[in-house]
Specification:
Elements lengths: L11 H31 L3 H7 L6 H14 L3
Helix pairs in contact: 1-3
Length: about 80
Amino acid sequence: MTYFNDTRRSGGFGGFFSGLVGRVQGALAYRAAYAQTLRELEALSTRELDDLGISPAKMDDIAASAAREAVANRG
């Protein structure tokens, strides 16, 4: 009876590199979505923010949430 034993590491350098590229792309997509959302919120007047129910103190949280959603939905 013949046995086959594959001891190579799964993925190797190619897997590591593609994983690294994917993480960098994700970070760049997050940063771009965050910055775009924050710019759009900062462009609104105080009255417009009040109409939307957004406190200026919450703009960072909203931008971060939008960026996480954008990265999760990319692809």
